[in-house]
Amino acid sequence: MKQGFFTIKENTALTESVYRMVMAGDTSAVTAAGQFVNIKLEGMFLRRPISVCDCTEGELTIIYKVVGKGTEQMAKMSPGEELDVLTGLGNGYDLTSSGNEPLLIGGGVGVPPMYMLAKKLIEQGKKVTVILGFNKKYEIFYEKEFQDLGCEVYVTTVDGSYGTRGFVTDVMKDLSYSYFYTCGPEPMLKAIYRACASEGQFSFEERMGCGFGACMGCSCQTVTGYKRICKEGPVLKKEEILWQK
Questions:
Q1: Computed from CA positions of residues 144, 145, 146, 147, in that sequence, does the dihedral angle turn out positive or negative?
Q2: What's the DSSP call for residue 239?
């Protein structure tokens, strides 16, 4: 974990409620796709945890959805403003088990960490397939960005307004893949767990207090005992997971 001050370079709306923010600063602590940052906002007691979408030397990209006062405040920020950011949080995805044809599945705001993961896997020469799941056409973002990386991309919408009508599992069941990685809402993760044809890794979204393992507020039970989503997670392997009723 590393604390730093980042200068906003871009803060652009991708949809009605989803924004991309690009910041300049020290990114040396970001070492794996699937990690997150924790952002301090004026007047807010708790920092806001946001997944890393992309990271290069000196530049960090996050994608966030406006869901409350904190993200509303972020959406109003302009280039040149500065943010206090904790970087290098969480364990990230393990790429060593991916095989040659990994499948990446992102739902809603679970899509962003799939982008950096796809880049890293393609750099290793892997054939990457991506499924992006949304409720409606107007919520879709980053389809072209994944295509530009060289991924085979499928999009699902619950109402059928774009791509395949239904859920990510409706596409997943007809694909062959060596391994899978996923991030999104828990109902989607549970459905993928039931439908998957290989081993894989799940990234969990959880309300957090400190964001770095001190408060124990985001603990969840696994087959090997309790783990903190912010510290031992957010990524857990399929064989570790115990679903809560």
A1: positive
A2: G
Residue among 73, 54, 41 nearest 149 (CA):
54
Tokens coding 73: 């405040």
Question: Tens-digit pLDDT profile for the chain (245 aa)?
Answer: 899 999 999 999 999 999 999 999 999 999 999 999 999 999 988 889 999 999 999 999 999 999 999 999 999 999 999 999 999 999 999 999 999 999 999 999 999 999 999 999 999 999 999 999 999 999 999 999 999 999 999 999 999 999 999 999 999 999 999 999 999 999 999 999 999 999 999 998 766 565 665 665 566 777 777 777 766 768 989 998 877 75
Strand partners, 85: 4, 39
The closest alpha carbon to 182, from 107, 109, 74, belongs to 107
Residue 226 CB partners (closer than 8 Å, separation 6+): 219, 220
